[in-house]
Amino acid sequence: MKSVHRHIEHINYSYCQQLRNAGIEIIKERAVFVDAHTLDLNGHQVTADKILIAVGGKPNKPQIPGKVKFK
């Protein structure tokens, strides 16, 4: 398990580096939308044309007839 966790940390670090190299700012904070282009980060406001929120988690696979099956 220790090896698996180390590998996952390495992958995560690699993804973050690629995003930073592409000029993307990564902010790991709790945020609240002020409007469509502004976030409040504990009293500090950040404005951007596009905001991506990546919360992590697992996909929800609802039992809907005819849904596409994923492995």
TrEMBL record:
Residue ranges annotated for the FAD/NAD(P)-binding domain, each copy included: 7-67
Lineage: superkingdom: Bacteria
Keyword Oxidoreductase: yes
Cofactor: FAD
The keyword RNA-binding is annotated on this UniProt entry: no
InterPro entries reported in the protein's UniProt record: FAD/NAD-bd_sf (IPR036188), FAD/NAD-binding_dom (IPR023753), GSHR/TRXR-like (IPR046952)
Family to which this protein belongs: Belongs to the class-I pyridine nucleotide-disulfide oxidoreductase family.
Identification of the protein by name: FAD-dependent oxidoreductase
Species in which this protein is naturally found: Nodularia spumigena UHCC 0060
Lineage start: Bacteria, Bacillati, Cyanobacteriota, Cyanophyceae, Nostocales
